[in-house]
Structures are given as C-alpha cells and as structure tokens.
Amino acid sequence: MPLRDSLAAVEPYRPQRPMRELQAELGLERIVKLASNEGAFGPLPAAVAAFEAAVRDLNRYPDGGGLRLREALAERHGLPVEQVVLGNGADELIRLCAVATLDPGHRAACFWPSFPSYLAAAACSGAAAVRAPAGDLDALLASGAKLVYIANPNNPTGALVERAEVRRFLDALPGDALCVLDEAYAEYAEPEPEGPALVREGRPGLAVLRTFSKIYGLAALRVGYALASPDVADALDRVRPVFNVNQPAQEAALASLHEREAVELRVHHARGARELLYETLLGASLGARPSQANFVYADCAREGRPDGGQPAPGERLAARLLREGFIVRALTGFGAPEAIRVTVGTDEENALFADALGRALR
User: What would the CATH number be for the domain defined by 46-258?
Assistant: First the structure.
C-alpha cells in the first residue's frame, strides 16, 4: 500500500459512542460526562452573542490571519502580534510543532504518562518518541530529542512543574531543540505557569500553548494559540493551514477575552471543586493525586491487576461508573492503565458522582 511505514506507530483516535446512544442502551435517565476535561460551564454570554452574529456571514471565508484575535492576545500577553499563532485547538498546534521541527530519524520526548497527541505528532513526522518518567526533566534533557513537549500542568496527572525548574530546563536545552510548554490548564494552577513571561524574555526555541477549550467553555469551537519565539512563530505560520480557525470561533474567543470577572469566578469554582473531588476519591481508598488542573487522577490498584484477557483496572472501574451514569476517562491510552481521570463538574454533578462512586465500588 502507498502509505508511510511510520503511520503504523500512530494510534488512531477512537471516539466514545454518542452519549444518547449509551443512555438508551443502559436505560439511564441521565449521563454526566466527566471524561474530557471540558469546562464545567458553557460559553460566556458575550461569546454566544458574538458567535450568533458571525453566522450571518457563513458564506464568506474566515480571516485567514485571525488578526483581531491575535492582536487581542498579543496585547494580553505583552508580545508582538507576529509571535501569536492560532490553531484549531491546542491539539493542532502540537502537530504543527512536530511538522515544523522533525525529520525522519529525529526524536521527540515527553513525560509519560501524558497526552497521547505528543506521541502521534512525532510518529506522523517519522520521528521516534521517547517517554520520560513524569516530572523527570533530566530524563528529557538526556533523550537527545529535537522536540520536547512538557504539559504543565500535566495531563493526566495534574502535576505542575515549578517555575524555577522550567527555567533550569530551558537554560540547559540545546540550541537546536524546540521546547513546547503545553499550558492548556494554566488558568487552574496556583501559581499559574509563566510560559508567556518566558516568551517575553526572548527565550529562543520556545512555544507556549494555550486554549479557549477549558476555562472559556469553547471546546466545540476548537480555538488554541501559540506564543512563540519569532523564528518558531514564523515556522508555525508556514505550516499552518490558512483557514484553520473558523470565523464564528474567532469572534467567540475574542469576546470571551473581555469577560475577566466571569472567568475568575470559574477559576475559583474549579479550584475548590477539585479539592472536594480529590477528597472524594481519596476517601474511597483510590490513589488520588493532588491536582493543579480541572481534573483529578486516581489510581485504581484496589481493583487488582488484569488477569488474562481482563480489562485494565482503570477500564473496569470506568465501566462500572458508566453503568451508574458517569463517563470518566480510563487512562490506558495515556500510559496509566491502572488509573482513571475525573474532570471537575458542577457542584451538583460532583455530589452525584460521589454517590455513584460509592455504588460502583460496592
């Protein structure tokens, strides 16, 4: 077949069955999705109004440069507009960083467990993927990788690399390597990671990724952005599809940026709710870890190890929770088959989840 050999290393995304289909099959009155780290609340009212106004011009191509949104982001982060690149979600920018950096035979490195898109991006470029123990920056440096992805906070563990450690890593990174700081969950962290400040300082070989999918509630619209050193931003712009972010999405994201007070309330809620979720999981004798994101990682070792063809521990607990009406993420594809990840929901959803977890573990 006329296909690239390296694609054999790419694990295709396997979407979950539609929620309505699952609900009908299981006979449930309601299903609560706590699996994809979406924001607990919908789009902000200003974003909805901007989106609705933009649909009148759906016969027109979007602004291929996303200039108004990029100008607003540049002002927010104190950077020239040329150093802001839009993406169809941060996920597209993960792939574009690989396209701009890697040739066959190169290496890309990331923590593991972490976000599987890093491995797929490397494989699609014909590069080898090196998995370093989560949080081990020295292992990333020793990998000899030309491209390094650091999710900060890390998905799925929720761990945050301290600012001083990130700076130490960047100081030691070879000059021909690109570091991608994936800060998709930055707003939830205390303190917030300082990726934008590092770009402002003029650090070379650096791209910082942010997104409107989480705290701003725009996951369905797919709007992410990179703040990058000038040469990296130029390279990303060269490999970026020209109309990668549609116009209603650009308008909704731009309107969301001005809703600072509402966003702060969401941050406050998420930080408090994740602590309660952590205590819920810990109280259920699951190996929960403190988190700096809008989700909590929990080890399911109490489920026992898989025997023969049995599903992994995380998959077994996720299946039982699904029968209780809750979708959580089993982490086999993230490199942690023994664990699940639970996204923070609304106060009502979190309380209902606590009850469902008790029933599932019984």
Answer: 3.40.640.10
Among 338, 345, 347, which Cα is nearest to 37's? Answer: 345
Name the H helices within 102-222: 117-124, 137-142, 163-172, 195-200
SS3 247: helix
Give the domain ranges of the chain. Answer: 10-42+261-361, 46-258
Q: Quick one: CA dihedral 73, 76, 77, 82, positive or negative?
A: positive
Longest dimension (CA), the chain: 57
State CA 334 to chain mean position distance.
Answer: 12
CB proximity list for 103: less than 8 A, separation 6 or greater: 125, 126, 127
CA-to-CA distance for 311 and 333, rounded, in angstroms? 13
3-state helix, strand, coil in the chain (%, to 5): 45, 15, 40
CATH number of 10-42+261-361: 3.90.1150.10
Q: What is the pLDDT along the chain (362 residues), one digit of tens a residue?
A: 677 877 787 777 777 778 888 888 888 889 999 999 999 999 999 999 999 999 999 999 999 999 999 999 999 999 999 999 999 999 999 999 999 999 999 999 999 999 999 999 999 999 999 999 999 999 999 999 999 999 999 999 999 999 999 999 999 999 999 999 999 999 999 999 999 999 999 999 999 999 999 999 999 999 999 999 999 999 999 999 999 999 999 999 999 999 999 999 999 999 999 999 999 999 999 999 999 999 999 999 865 555 556 789 999 999 999 999 999 999 999 999 999 999 999 999 999 999 999 999 98
CB atoms within 10 A of CB 235: 20
DSSP-derived letter for residue 36 is S
Q: How far apart are CA 18 and CA 22, in angstroms?
A: 6
- Residue identified by tokens 């990998």 is 143
Q: Beta-carbon neighbour count of residue 28 at 10 Å?
A: 16
The CA distances from residue 216 to 47, 105, 207, 249, 325, in Å, are 9, 39, 21, 12, 26
Q: In what order do the strands lie in the sheet with 287-288?
A: 287-288, 295-299, 339-343, 329-330
